[in-house]
Amino acid sequence: MAPDGQTIAPNVYDAEPIPEAARAEIDRLLRSGDLFRYTAPEGAPVALLESEFAALLGSRYALAVSSCSAALFLSLKALDLPRDARVLIPAFTFAAVPSAVVHADCVPVLVEVGDNYRVDMADFAAKLPTAHAVMISHMRGHTSDMDAIMALCDAAGVPVIEDAAHSLGTTWHGRNIGTIGRVGCFSFQSYKLVNAGEGGIMVTDDPEIAARAIIMSGAYEQNWKKHPGLQNSFGHWQNKLPLYNLRMQNLSAAVIRPQLPLVADRVAKGLANHDYVADRLNQTSCLHVPPALAPESRAPDSIQFNLTGDWTDAQALGFQAAAKARGVSVQVFGLSEGNARAFWNWQFLGEPPHLPQTRAMLMRACDVRLPARLTRAELDYIADALMDAAKDAQNA
């Protein structure tokens, strides 16, 4: 709030603060130097986090690792896929997802995404017969049709990994996203619902996947004994799998654990913020926020919307600039230089595939952060700035 009482452009880039409850544990760890997850015989912060997160999601097993990218990679390796296995991924995702597929010695196969940011099921069904696995990114928390996806994959015997980096707290028919496929992977990077700076976690009900992932994450020698419930599987796989050393360390877990009880409140506030701004933007003819699918209850901390009608690239860039001049940072995914969410920038994959539907969407799809902490006045400021910027750009 400015001194004259006027609302100023809110800072949407500060991460969620670390709860005071974390400080005593952090101080204890720093005094002891006990940062390695396997030093203590039991009760290490990382082990406690895994137990608490599995209970939160309703999963049998959880493995905390260094990042969500690490969780995605380990999930693919734990599936024991053949080299050059074809893995379907949405063409609208973050570059870390195809990177994880490449690191796992597999081949990403990009699937078209519609203007509602969800997988195009016709293209998915057409490409599934040659796939060995599917990695569904619920990009920016937008859930694709998991009923249709799971029906097709179950019938074909193709395992599904959920990239739920943006979807902690989202449900589908009341079931937690990340628990529908064979494995679910979550992020604790600073701009996610739970902030640890970096970090990730994977959940599964499959004991063999859990055992293989735990060993490959870096549970060397007898350290796997500190993971409960998988002793027979561990005994079978010990020394037969490579170690990638992608473990989480105790300080990260100490930061994350006190935030888990705050997830439900953050989800409720984030959804309320999103829907309030969405209702305002949808009152205009040139901005459109696609609705959630019927079975989906979302947990957003950002908002995506499309520039609708006859926008030129110059006008879309003008919209970005006009919003920024008002203190609101917008990125048009396909027009932001080097954007890691635009598939044609993933040069490590070679020549970009022909995906006209996804390309057209990305050229007019916009992204704005909406943290749960924002006030109604700050939300109004953002909505007003976006609508005024759109008018300026179209009239230029």
Short description:
With 396 residues, the chain is α/β, with parallel strands linked by helices. The protein has 2 domains: 21-261, Type I PLP-dependent aspartate aminotransferase-like (Major domain) (Aspartate Aminotransferase, domain 2); 263-395, Aspartate Aminotransferase, domain 1.
Task: Describe the model.
- The chain is an alpha/beta fold.
- The chain folds into two domains: about 240 residues, Aspartate Aminotransferase, domain 2; about 130 residues, Aspartate Aminotransferase, domain 1.
- It contains 13 helices and 14 strands.
- The strands form three sheets. The protein has a seven-stranded mixed beta sheet, sandwiched between helices. The protein has a four-stranded antiparallel beta sheet with strand order 10-12-14-13.
- It is globular and about 70 Å long.
- The two termini are about 30 Å apart.
- The model has no long low-confidence stretch (mean pLDDT about 95).
Name the overall outline.
globular
- For this structure, what is the CATH homologous superfamily of the largest domain? Type I PLP-dependent aspartate aminotransferase-like (Major domain)
Number of helix segments?
Answer: 13
As residue ranges, the low-confidence spans are none
Q: What's the arrangement of strands in the largest beta sheet?
A: 1-9-8-5-4-2-3
Main sheet specs? 7 strands, mixed
Mean pLDDT: 95
Q: How do the helices and strands follow one another from N- to C-terminus?
A: HHEHEHEHEHEEEEEHHHHEEEHEHEH
* Strand content range: 5-15%
**Considering DSSP H and I runs of 4 or more, what fraction of the residues is helical?**
25-40%
- Tally of structural domains: 2
The number of E-state strands comes to 14
Rg, rounded, reads 22 Å
Structural class: alpha/beta
Stated plainly, the CATH topology of the largest domain is called Aspartate Aminotransferase, domain 2
In CATH terms, what is the architecture of the largest domain?
A: 3-Layer(aba) Sandwich
Distance between the termini: 31 Å
